Amino acid sequence: MLDLPRSAVLDLDGPVHLADYGGDPDAPLMLCLHGLGNSHVSWRGFAAQLTDEYRVLAVDMPGHGRSPRAGRSAGVPQNRVVLDRILGELDAGPVTLVGHSMGATLAMLQASERPESVAALALLAPPTPRGRAELVSPALAPRVALCTWPWLARQSLDRRLHKLGAEAFVKRGLELTCASADTVDSVTWQLTVELLETQAAGEDHHVAVVEAARSLGLLVARASEYRRAIEAIECPAVVVQGDADRLVSPQGLHRLTALQPQWLTGVLEGVGHSPHLEAPEVTARATRDLLHNALAAWADPPGPALDESVCA
User: Fold this and answer.
1) DSSP annotation string for 32-98
2) Domains of the chain
3) Which of these, 104, 131, 142, 140, lies nearest to 220 by C-alpha position?
4) Is the pTM of this model over 0.70?
5) How confident is the model at residue 62 (pLDDT cuts 50, 70, 90)?
């Protein structure tokens, strides 16, 4: 039998699913925010490494995982409001937000707009404001172009899923985001396929994915607005990225730390755009260590700044 997390459902103008991966109920709360098209399942291995220090929850945003879209927008600004309402329902005081890709953007926007709700940020492969002359990565270009016509993008995803089947469809997605899809453990793979096969997020899952992708792309492209939000963040934060990430340019990491020089960074060798899926133990250890250092530096500002680290 699979060791599944406990589940809870909040009513926020429609169901929002929360997965409880465990930890002492009185421990600091860590809330994990998935990336585009992903779900709470992606945090399985990562969360298991951190429940000795945190109570770890993972949310499914509308149209993802076990949270149906239910007529709600899946755009990034709207999801930020949903995140704020989740934190209000949890009523746990300032929490540590861990976000992957789109989830990292949500975490940064929440810290910028509602600083009293966030104790610290851990950002895995965060999208960064695009430079003026920076081109979209070759791996993303076809998908960005397709999102110019949302109805066509939705039809394309529907046709691809129907043609390939759930297993091959999930594999294609992992091959895009991971340095090697073979590094993803079989249980996480199985659970991801089951969510897709059972349409746990509802029949309009692809509507939500395209809407969220288009919204995120516009935010990244409107670099000045995104930069202002990042510059406004005042809590400790750490950034973890794989050196084999094909979706987020290495230039982006330097651009992010130029906006927030005190943020600590870790680069994982041989890891792609999904560190928590590809190397959950290493990613969790790097995240924990960097958070400890960031919180210590925050409590003792005169201490020496830490340079970018490379994690084996």
Assistant:
1) EE--TT--GGGGHHHHHTTTTTSEEEEEEPTTBTTB--TT---SHHHHHHHHHHHHHHHT-SSEEEE
2) 6-311 (3.40.50.1820)
3) 131
4) yes
5) very high
